[in-house]
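Hi! If you just cloned this repository, the fastest way to understand the data is to look at a raw example. We've pasted two of them here, unedited. The first protein comes first, obviously.
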Amino acid sequence: MDVTSPPLSLQDNGFCMVPTDPPGTSKEEMKKLQEELKMWKKRVEEAESVKMKLLLSKLTADEECDRAEKKLTELKEQEKQHQDRMISFEQELFLLNQEKTELKKEIQKLKEDLEEYNSKDNPIKKKVAEMKLKFSHLEKMKDDGADLDMDTHCVFGAATKIPFRLNQNQALLTFEDEEVAQRLTKMSKHCVELDNRTANVTVKPFDLDMGFQFELHITVSGKKINVSQIPELPIPKDWMRDKLELHFYKTEQAAGGGEIKNVTYNQGTGTAVITFLKPGASNKFVGCTKYPFCAEGRWFNLSVSPHFDFHLRKFQPYCRVSKKTILLKGIPEVEEDEETVQDMIEIHFQKPSNGGGEIEKIKYISRGAAYVCFEEDSEDATSQITGDS
C-alpha cells in the first residue's frame, strides 16, 4: 500500500459506519433506564436492610427462646422444690397433729389427776427460802350476831428471797446511793489496781429473777387450843378423849376452861384439838404451856398452845431490777487472798474520782460460786449461801 496515495473512503472498501446508539433508543429512554437501575439498587439495599433486621430479629428470638427455656427450667425446679416442701410440710403437720393428740390426752389426764387431787383436799406444799414476815395490821373481830368470835386476826406481809448465783471472779456491790450504781453501769469499763497490776473489769446491770409476795392471814382461835404430848396408855380411844374433856373443863390452872363443845383426839400422834363452847375461853390458857394431867394413877405434863389457822392471799409474782447493786465481771486471778482483793475493789469503787461512792455491801468470789439472796423490800444482799458450782 502506497502511503503517498490519497485515502480511500470506507464504503469503497466494503465498510460502513455504525452509530453508537442502538437502533430505536433515545436519550430519554436511557435516562429512564438509569433511573430504573437506581430504583432497583435502592430496593436491593432495602431488601438487604430488611434481611439484616430479620437476622437480628431471629437472633433476638433465639436469645428470648433460650431465656424462656431457662426460665421454664427454673420454674420446673421451683415447682419441684415447692412440691418437696409441701410433702415435708405435710409430714411435719402429720407429726404435729400426732403430738397435739398426745398433748390433749396428757392434758386430759392432768385435769383428771388435778380433780382427783382436789377431791382429796390435799394442800400444795412448796419449799421456799427462809423469809421475814412483816406485821401489817390486826383485823376486826367478827360478829356472828350473838357474840363476838373473840378470834385474833393478824395480817403479815411476806416476800420470798430471790437467790442470785455469783460465779467465780465476780463481785456484787451495793451502794448507798442508786445514782452511783447507775453512773458506774453507764461507764461499763473500769481499770482497777489489783496487786500492783491494772485489771480491766466490766460493770453489768444487775437483774433479779422472779420472786413472789403475798399476805399471810393468821387467825388465833378464841375457842380452840392444841394439846400435844398426850401419853400413850392401854385404854380405849374414847376413854382418853373423855378424860381430856373432863380435865380441861375443870382445870384449876386455867381457872376453869368452861363447857367444851368438841374434842378431836389423834391417838397416833398424841395430839388433840379442844373446842370450847364460849368464845374467848382459850385466852385463859395463854401464858402457861404445861398442864399436869392424871390418868391411870400417873401424872403427865401436857403441852398446850393456841390454835392457828393460816391463809395465803394476794399471792403474786414480781420482777425487780436492782438500782443500787452492780455486777462486776472479769476480775483476774491474783496471788492475794479473797478478802484482800475484796478490800481493793471496795477502795477503788468508793473513790468519787473513779465515779464511785459509799458502799453498803460487797461480795467477791474468787473460787467456786455463791448464792446471794435479795429481798423484795430491800435491794441489798441480805444473806448468802456459799457452795461450789
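Ok, and the second one:
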Amino acid sequence: MLCGTRGLLRASVAPTAALAAALLSTLARCSLPERGDLRTTALSPYFGTKTRYEDVNPGLLLDPETPRRDPELLAGSCTPVQLVALIRHGTRYPTAKQINKLRQLYGLLQARGPKDKRPGSAESRGLGAALADWPLWYADWMDGQLVEKGRQDMRQLALRLASLFPALFTHENYGRLRLITSSKHRCMDSGVAFLQGLWQHYYPGLSPPDVADMECGPPRVNDKLMRFFDHCEKFLTEVERNATALYHVEAFKTGPEMQNTLKKVADTLQVPVNDLNADLIQVAFFTCSFDLAIRGVKSPWCDVFDVDDAKVLEYLNDLKQYWKRSYGYTINSRSSCTLFQDIFQHLDKAVEQKQRKWEWLKRKYLKLKMLVAMPVKEGGVCS
C-alpha cells in the first residue's frame, strides 16, 4: 500500500551479468533505545506503519546489519542485474497536528482537578494522574521530522541490502547508484542516511563525507514521481479534497465499536466521555507507539488501551488508508502508474542491455567455434 512519501533507489551492474531483477519495499517500523528501559507492549502488533522493525523481526536486535535471508538461495537461482527498491522514510516524530491533539488531551487530564499528592505510585493514584505527571516532551518544531533512530535504521538497511546483493554493490558500481526522493525533510534525510550506510559498506571505518562529495551524488528530489498523488488532479478532486470521500471512516468513528472504546478510555482516564472523540484517543494510542519507537520506553499511554481497543483503532487507521490511499477508489492506484512505469522502464532497459550483450557474446562464441573447427594445414598451426 502506497501511503506516504518514499525514496527510490536504483543500483545496476554492468550488462555482462546474468538476468534478474528485484523490487523491494520497506516500511518504517523502528525503535530508539535513547534512554530508559527498552520494552514491548501487547499493543505493538496493531501500530501499522508505526510498528518498530524490532517488534516484527526480533533478529534485528541481535545483528541489524546482516540480512536474515540466506544469500546462497538467490545465488543458486539467478544473478541480479538491477535492484529497484521503493523505501518508506525512517522513524519520525509525530506531526504538528498530532502533537496539538495530544496537547488537547493532556489539557483534559490537567483539568481533572488538583493533582493527588498522596504518597504512592502513579498507578495507585490512577492512570489519569500518572499521565498528568508524564512529561509532554513533543514540540511543534518536530513536525514529522526524522529521528536519529530513523537515520540508524536507514543506514542498517543499506548495509543489509549491500550484504544481500554483493554483485550489485561493488566499488565499480558505486557511481551507477541513483537515489530519488520527495522534498519532505524526513525523506531527504532518510536518503542521506541510506547513502551514509552504503559509505560504511564501501569504506568501513571511514567517516562519510558530505553526500555531494560521494561518487553516486546526493539524492535527487522529484515530487512528481515520489508524491504522485499530489500531482494527480483527479485524485485531488475525487478523494483528497472531497469532503465525502471518507464517509465510511466517519461512520465508523460514531459506530458502536468506537463508542465502546471511547467509554472505556473515558472511565480509565476519569474524564467526561463527551470531551473525547475518536481522533483524540487515536493520537493517544499512537503516542504509545511513538514513545516506544523514539525513546524506547513503554509510557503510561500504553496502559490506557487493551488489545480489543487496539484492534478497533487499528481498523480505524486501516479503513482510512483503504479509502484514501488504497483500494477504496480506482484513482488511488491509477495515480501511482507514473511511478511504476518509471520502475518497469528501468527494469526493461536492464533486460534489453542483457539481451544485447548475450547476442554479442553468442556471435563471438560462434565465430570462435568456427575458427577452432577450421582444418589445420599440414605441419601444424605454426607452420
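That's it. A detail worth noticing about the second one: The beta strands are 6-12, 21-26, 82-88, 178-181, 220-221.
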